[in-house]
Amino acid sequence: MENVLSLVPVLIKMAIVVGVLLLLPLPLTWLERKIAAHIQQRPGPMRVGWHGLLQPLADAIKLLTKEDHIPAEADRMLFSIAPVVALVPPFLVFVAIPIGDPIQMFGTEIALSISDLNVGLLFILAVSGIGVFGTILAGWASNSKYAVLGSLRSIAQMISYEIPMGFSVIGVVMLAGSMQLSQIVSSQQGLWNVVVQPIGFFVFFVSGLAEAQRIPFDLPEAEGDLGAGYHTEYSGIRFSLFMLAEYLVVVVLAFLNVLLFFGGWLGGPAFLPATIWLLLKVGFFIWVFMWLRFTFPRYRYDQLMAIGWKLLLPLSLLNILVSGFVML
Questions:
Q1: What does the alpha-carbon distance between residue 207 and residue 158 come to, in Å, rounded to a whole number?
Q2: Could you tell me which of 180, 183, 18, 186 has the C-alpha nearest to residue 115?
Q3: How many domains does the chain have?
Q4: Do 113 and 97 touch, CB atoms closer than 8 A?
Q5: Contact 98, 116 (CB under 8 A)
Q6: Strand partners, 103
Q7: Separation between Cα atoms, residue 199 and residue 205, nearest integer Å
Q8: Residues 6+ apart with CB under 8 A from 323
């Protein structure tokens, strides 16, 4: 009976996380369209609700009621499961992401994470790599040249940038002596890792942009030459699952940047709860991702590969070498 009762807090936390993540893209789509509009000196969504606040709800209704089209020559089973495969990893990643120190409630200590794994960072990097399979399956199952080209680009891009992304956090792990995210945050008491690991942060941030397939690294779904890339043939609710996954990857990367390099929930003003301070920093990084999307042009594919292999990979290895010498 005690074992069953111990699962109740975990199930409650899982339900809260899933509910928040499912609803989060609604305000994020509105925010991104408003940021784009203000950068381009136009008002953006204004018609549905005050300043277009209900526009995401109208978009959701539209996507839910559109025809769910499957191409005649597509592999129906793979075509159907690809959006789910793309969506699952961002949800799994949040199992290991803490949002604050444990709190006391009703005489019980409650961790502000579903599971504060001692290999949390390794778990996140491993699970996030699975997301590429959704892209690959979507391109292959569509039986469309544009979709296949988009999925092939995605394979090359994810491999090229996962390597420097993984190397870039080794310096952080060396300083903290742990892969547990709460321990990494605690090790930044008084001095954030971005100060002592600027190269690691630069490599991680740029690699994260490429992993999220956001401009200027959105070659797998470049509308200029591939229609919409790997999800060209998708419509309705299946298409919305890909968009949901894309926004959740941005949120995950914002959390990781803050937890690994910007002190997590530490360093905030005394009057502000630590979790709110963390969420404010995460919101800032989400804004930066959106701002970059409407500021920089898309790279050519050869430039994309060159940045990953010729710039970020050597920089990440140099960062490990320098960190090791400094810690001697």
A1: 9
A2: 180
A3: 1
A4: yes
A5: yes
A6: 110
A7: 10
A8: 170, 171, 174, 175, 197, 200
C-alpha to C-alpha distances, 267 to 98, 116, 256, nearest whole angstrom: 16, 21, 17
- Of 28, 78, 75, 82, the residue nearest 56 (C-alpha): 28
d(CA 205, CA 213): 13
Find how far residue 87's CA is from the centre of its chain: 11
pLDDT digit string (tens) for 309-328?
A: 999 999 999 999 998 888 77
- Which pLDDT does position 202 carry in this prediction? 94
Q: Which two tokens stand for residue 82?
A: 């690809």
Pairing of strands 103-105, 108-110: antiparallel
Question: What single letter denotes the amino acid at residue 271?
Answer: F
pLDDT digit string, tens, across residues 30-43: 888 898 888 888 88
Of the candidates 120, 275, 114, 124, the one whose C-alpha atom is nearest the C-alpha of residue 183 is 120
User: Cα(234)–Cα(78) distance, rounded to whole angstroms?
Assistant: 12
pLDDT for residue 283: 93
Q: Is the pTM of this model over 0.70?
A: yes
- Residue 14 identity: M
Q: What is the DSSP letter of 104?
A: E
Residue range of the domain that includes 138: 2-327
Cα–Cα distance for residue pair 248/256, rounded to 1 Å: 12
Structure tokens at 13: 């936390």
Q: What letter does residue 221 receive in the DSSP assignment?
A: G
Write the pLDDT tens digit of every residue in 114-124: 888 888 889 99
Structure tokens at 317: 């290895």
Q: Model confidence over 216-265: pLDDT tens digits?
A: 877 766 665 666 677 778 888 888 888 888 889 899 999 999 999 998 88
Who contacts 243 (Cβ-Cβ below 8 Å, separation ≥6)?
A: 25, 29
Provide the residue count of the chain. 328
* Tokens 């949390």, residue located: 120
Distance of alpha carbon 52 from alpha carbon 169, whole angstroms: 40
Helical H segments across the chain, by residue range: 2-23, 25-39, 55-65, 76-93, 120-128, 132-142, 145-168, 170-176, 181-186, 193-196, 198-211, 223-226, 236-261, 274-293, 301-306, 313-327
